Amino acid sequence: MVILGDLMKKQGIRSDGRKIDELRPVRIEAGVLKNADCSSFIEFGGNKIMVAVYGPKEVHPKHMALADRAVLRCRYHMAPYSVDERKNPAPSRREIEISKISKEALEPALILEDYPRTAIDVYIEVLQSDGGSRCAGITAAAVALADAGINMRDLVTACAAGKVDNTIVLDINDEEDKKGQADMPIAYMPNLEKVTLMQVDGTLSKEEYKKCLDMAISGCMQVNQLQKEALRKKYFGNEEEEEGDMN
Amino acid sequence: MQEIRKKYVIPGDHIADGNFKNLLNAVEISNKIYATRVGIAEVGMDGAKVIPLSGIYIPRVGDLVICKVIDHSAMAWELDMNSCFSGHLPAQDVFGKEFSPSHDDLTKVFGIGDLVACKVANFDRSRNPLLTTADRDLGKIDSGEVVRVSPTRIPRLIGKRGSMINTIEQNTHCKIIIGQNGIVVVSGPSARDILISVKAIRMVDEGAHTTSLTQRVKDMLEGSTSGNIG
């Protein structure tokens, strides 16, 4: 039985010491794997996720190829040691679902028509899980796709908000996810202001729903800055904007 | 119209407002221009473009590419173009109109693993690029050091009106064949000269987005040709 009040220490402070609108510490790095075409790594609170991208490349089996666009294939997978008790490495129902929603969250941002008859493979490998891993995975995947030089309309950023102890909070962790009242992961294209993924688990009133959505989007905007920083760090280092002749 | 000289961008960055006829690696959404790649944005009167810093090679008609033979049938060779598409080189292009699959042996011209300089003769997205070797300086590459660079760095390696590549060639006396697909073949009078050229090419590959690169490459080449190659 859930003991309400456990998740909120006092007014506005959560069980892990965060404020209601505070993200967990986030660190993103682009281009961490040598052998993958492109890659990224994200630490989102306790989540540690590695993403590798291959492609665009020839499609195998060939019958899966689309004549006018690339095929985006996503695999979300949790390592056996990513959770408290060993997880069976075979794809579970949940992993198959998250693979599907990750693909659908990333697809609107990619200009797949530029790569006909090809495939883009995205591998999201959860090394350590701490609630909100689908959001962290999508965020890291967007960085890896940008690193791979695939044409994108915008970066996709994901963040969850939820209802804990009758309070709408940003970026719920594993404990809040399990004991809380609602969870709303959102994937968002910040520049185009478009939502590419929205799931809701739990019960929310109309007002709570609106507040939750606004809070998740504000979280996405914060995470987006970190995505941009990771890419800028890899490609431009600490260099200032170019104004001179590039020759 | 807004004028942005040069700006570092990542996908989704807003680079300009308004209508532009020519867009390269940029997309127009609700009269706003956004970058679609990580790179350097340039906005001028003629258009808005982003010079990308990462990405694979997408063939364009007329490109010189250096490919590796990976397979052949009775009628054509299949070549690895360092792209998501494999190249198709018909045997008739090499043997001429009198080509007969029963009399001519394709492996006598290009065997599997051979490196071939080709041009993209045709590419229309619906099928694999059609290659040709029927032009000057095209055909099998027998010797040289192969250097792989990012295809996005090739324009920088060539430089404005060939300034960068001429600098390297003049200082090292090497012959450098640059494939638009990111494969570069360096051949020269001595192993030392080839090594210096390769070092210069790597320098361009790593610092493509930086300023005054030609001068730095020149300084390195002048230092290397007179002293140690480091």
What key attributes describe this structure?
heterodimer, A: 247 residues, alpha+beta, Ribosomal Protein S5, domain 2, five-stranded mixed beta sheet, B: 230 residues, OB fold (Dihydrolipoamide Acetyltransferase, E2P), Ribosomal Protein S8, Chain: A, domain 1, four-stranded mixed beta sheet, 5 helices
Structure commentary:
The complex is a heterodimer of chains A (247) and B (230). With 247 residues, chain A is an alpha+beta fold. Chain A has one domain: GHMP Kinase, N-terminal domain (Ribosomal Protein S5, domain 2, 2-Layer Sandwich). Chain A is built from four helices and twelve strands, in the order ββββββαβαββαβββα. In chain A, the strands form three sheets. Chain A has a five-stranded mixed beta sheet with strand order 3-4-5-7-6. In chain A, strands 8, 9, 10, 11 and 12 form a five-stranded antiparallel beta sheet that branches. In chain A, helix 1 (93-106) packs across helix 2 and helix 2 runs parallel beside helix 4. In chain B, 22% of the residues lie in helices and 33% in strands. In chain B, strands 8, 9, 10, 11, 12 and 13 form a six-stranded antiparallel beta sheet that branches. Chain B has a four-stranded mixed beta sheet with strand order 1-6-7-3, with no helix packed on it. Chain B has a three-stranded antiparallel beta sheet with strand order 2-5-4, with no helix packed on it. Chain B folds into three domains: 7-52, RNA polymerase II/Efflux pump adaptor protein, barrel-sandwich hybrid domain (OB fold (Dihydrolipoamide Acetyltransferase, E2P)), CATH 2.40.50.100; 64-141, OB fold (Dihydrolipoamide Acetyltransferase, E2P); 145-226, K Homology domain, type 1 (Ribosomal Protein S8, Chain: A, domain 1), CATH 3.30.1370.10.
Give the SSE map.
The complex is a heterodimer of chains A (247) and B (230).
Chain A: E1 8-10, E2 13-14, E3 26-30, E4 38-44, E5 47-58, E6 71-78, H1 93-106, E7 118-128, H2 133-147, E8 157-164, E9 167-170, H3 174-179, E10 182-189, E11 194-198, E12 201-202, H4 206-236
Parallel strand pairs in A: 6-7
Antiparallel strand pairs in A: 1-2, 3-4, 4-5, 5-7, 8-9, 8-10, 10-11, 10-12
Helix pairs in contact in A: 1-2, 2-4
Chain B: E1 7-9, E2 14-17, E3 22-24, E4 26-29, E5 32-35, E6 39-43, E7 47-52, E8 64-72, E9 76-80, E10 86-90, H1 91-95, E11 115-122, E12 130-132, E13 139-141, E14 145-148, H2 154-158, H3 163-172, E15 175-178, E16 183-187, H4 191-206, H5 213-226
Parallel strand pairs in B: 3-7
Antiparallel strand pairs in B: 1-6, 2-5, 4-5, 6-7, 8-9, 8-11, 9-10, 11-12, 11-13, 14-16, 15-16
